[in-house]
Write the structure tokens for this entry.
Amino acid sequence: LTAHGVIISGFCKNGKLDKAIEAAENMVKSGLVPDQMILTAIMDVHFKSGNIKAGLDLYKEILARGFEPDAVTLSIIVDGLCKKGNLNEARDYLCREKANDFIYCPYIDAVCKEGNFSEIEKVLKEMSKVGFSLNKYFYTSWIAGLCQKGYLVEAFRVKRRMVEEGIELDLLTYSSIMFGLSSKGLMVEARQVFDDMLSSGIDPDFVVYDILFRGYRKQGNEAGILGVQDEMRNRGI
RNA sequence: GCCGGAAGGC
């Protein structure tokens, strides 16, 4: 069974849904029953390819087979619905016994991208009532949302709160902030955040440099552009 | 660290 699982999830990761389903059908033919992991993986592919209905149908099938939906299964559904903009529907899957803080992440992310920051405060209260604490991903999504909308002051406030709670910023947190700064043309500040990141021991990746690069290019800052290109070359990116 | 399933930056 595990061997089949490896094969099927491999197909799923490569987006070869048809082959994954084929493999699952072959399993059934040879008398094996796919377990929850296998079904969940296939469900995930449905959602990621935008086929919400197929995903939900498979979810029903999982229930019908007597599997208890666990946090992973639910979070895939929430993620799928959120990315399609069905936030209301997604909310139905949030407040369940099996929930963990992971489940909230895609929802928070979607709410942030909508710029619905009052909803965030609401969810925040709800989460703490149920006993979940905010994690890194929650904060990063929040910060990224604020930065994209240009609310940099708010973003820095959230960042400070994050640090106060002892949560470390990671590459994505930094790059979200840098994106916010550089899309407002605040390259000096963006560069400073970048240096902060380096001194906290985080290695930059292509995206981070690209953010700087675009910022400098928009300003026609030749020296900045060349500097970024040099650094990238030195790091082998 | 990974060794079958989920989330955040361009």
